[in-house]
Fold:
Amino acid sequence: MRGYKYRAINKYSLDILENNNAYFSRYTDFNDPFEFSTPLPNVKNMFKRASEQLDSLHDSNIFDTATYKMLKSTCEKIIINGNPKLDNTHNGIRETLEKVGIYSLSKVNDEILMWSHYADNHKGFCIEFDDLHINTIPLTKSLPVNYKTTFTDLDDPTAILNFYTDIFHKFRYLPETAWQKKRAELAKKMSFEDDQRGGISVLTDKYAKWEYEQEFRLIDEKSFGIKKFNPSCLKSITFGLRTSTEEKYNIIEICKSNKELNIEFFQATKAHNQFKLDIKKLDL
Structure:
């Protein structure tokens, strides 16, 4: 997947070209204070909602009365006392987020506002990568940004109710040994999917007004900081409307001196009578 990095011209951005380095930021470095603010699940609230929805499942004859009362009792205990295992899991997600490294890329190289905000008012440049996530050391994950007007509802009890429905309705007639095996299998699956949903939502939820950025994110779950990348995935550089001739020459010479790079150069220009950029290839 092609991804574009808009940059001002400075020693840090030139380091990308000179030394094949990409800096993965901590979430606290981001400019929007609402980033990474999706509330992690409130276990007591989640099971309160599950308990309320159990009533309709019982009315629909999904659960017999004995099973219904047992599940209601289970929910009530968690509503009162919490669930230390789930709380520990969610605390672990919070601790992991402190270590995560994030590299933001855009799907486009011709967004006027991106040039203004991230490329020094069009005086910078834009780097094109191809599948950077599988060319970083170590490999990283690529995640699409989820543009929203509200945070993802991580208190949604659907996964819990699906688990209850599967175990105490769909598979209830299995022999005891097979039933216990299926229960353990589905519990493990539910826990994994809950962890993934929580972590990914926190990492990718973003206010809808930012949608023009067409952002996706590379994630290193273990550490932030500088990551080396395979230079063959760096495909092109586009210069901004206001990039000086001197800066263009300097960047071209840096790229030529890095023998591992084989890239094309482009120039952003104003489209005629439109709020639009045209990207034109430079013949060097």
